[in-house]
Amino acid sequence: NINYLEQEPLYTGEDGYLIVAPGDKLIPRFQIIDSIIEKRNSSTVVYVKDEKIQDIVPMVISRQGQPYTDEILDYLRVLQTIKVNDPKNLSRCQWLRDCFCYNGHICAIEENRFDSLSALLHGRPRFNHGEIRSFIRQLLKSVAFLHKVGIVHTTLSPRNVLLCPQSLNPKIKVASSATGTNHQGTKPSSLLSAQIQIVGFHCAVFKNVGYYEALTPYCYTAPEVFQGKQWSYACDIWSIGCMIFRLLTGTNFLWETEECEVLDLIYQRAPGSLGEKYSPTTTNSSQSIEHYKHTLKRIDCPAECSDLLGQIFTTSKKRITAEEALKHPWLR
C-alpha cells in the first residue's frame, strides 16, 4: 500500500526526474541530506534523514511517466515479496522500510547501506579459502531463498553485495562514494567478520518474466542472456561462480568487452556452457584460453573448488542450483 501525499511541490525537470538539493523536504519526516548519489534510467537515489527513526537512509525516487512508475512498482513488488516471505530477514536480502507518492513520484525508503564487496576488492586482490567459503555460503543461502519465492536477482555482482558487520560496534564513519559525505557505518576488515546483505533489486524479475538483455557487468553475466534466452535462476548461479573466481584469483572470469566478443570469450573458457550449436565468431582465442587454464593452477585451487566451478560454468540446464551448491563438499 502506498500513501499518497501532496503538498507544495518541488520541481520536476523536463526529463522527468525530481529536482532535489540538500535541505529539501519531501514531507516533514524526510529531509534530503545529499544530492543525487545514483541516477538510473527510471529513478534516482538520494540520502535522507528519517526523523521518525533518527537515521540517514537511502530513498529511491521514481522518474515521472507511466513506464517508470510501472518499473518501480515492479521493484516494490519484489521487495514486498521478500518481506512477506522472510519477516525476520534471515535471508539477508534488502527490505523496504516505507513508500509514498510525492507529486507523481513514487518514493521508496530502503535500509541503510554499508560498503559493498566491490569496495573491499579494491584493497585486497585475493582472499583465503576460509573467507571465500564463509562468504559464498551466505550468498548461496540468500539466493536459494530468492529462488524459492520465485525471484531472479539478475544483477548479482560485488557492488550489489553489502558487507555488514556482525557486531555494529565500534562504528566507523564511512564516506559516501558519490558525495564524500560521512554516514554512520562499519567497515568489516575481512569476509569472515561480515554478514552479507543483497541489494540492487531494481532489475530483479520473477521467474520467466521480464528482461532479456545484459543488466549486470558483462564479466558477471550468464552466456544464455547474451543468447537472448529468458532470465532463470541459473543466471544468478553463473554470477556467483564469477564472484568465486574473482575472490580466488584476483582477476575477473571475463573482462569488460564488446558484447559480440563476450560469447567467444565464454566459449574459450567454458565451451560447454554455450551448448553444442554455438560456433565462435573470432579466432584470437589463445590469450583467453591460456589465462583460464593456468590461473587456477597457479593459485593451487583445490580439486573440490574446481569441481564446483565446473558445475557452475556449464549450460543453464546442467548448472548446479543454489540448494545443491550448499551441499557441495567444498562448502560443507
UniProtKB/TrEMBL annotation:
Gene Ontology cellular-component annotations: nucleus
Annotated keywords: ATP-binding, Kinase, Nucleotide-binding, Serine/threonine-protein kinase, Transferase
Lineage: superkingdom: Eukaryota
Domain Protein kinase: 4-331
Membrane in keyword set: no
Pfam families tied to this protein: Pkinase (PF00069)
GO biological process, one term: regulation of RNA splicing
Keyword Kinase listed: yes
Gene Ontology molecular function, alphabetical: ATP binding; protein serine/threonine kinase activity
SUPFAM superfamilies tied to this protein: Protein kinase-like (PK-like)
Entry-linked InterPro entries: CLK_kinases, Kinase-like_dom_sf, Prot_kinase_dom
Protein's name in the database: Protein kinase domain-containing protein
Lineage start: Eukaryota, Fungi, Dikarya, Ascomycota, Pezizomycotina
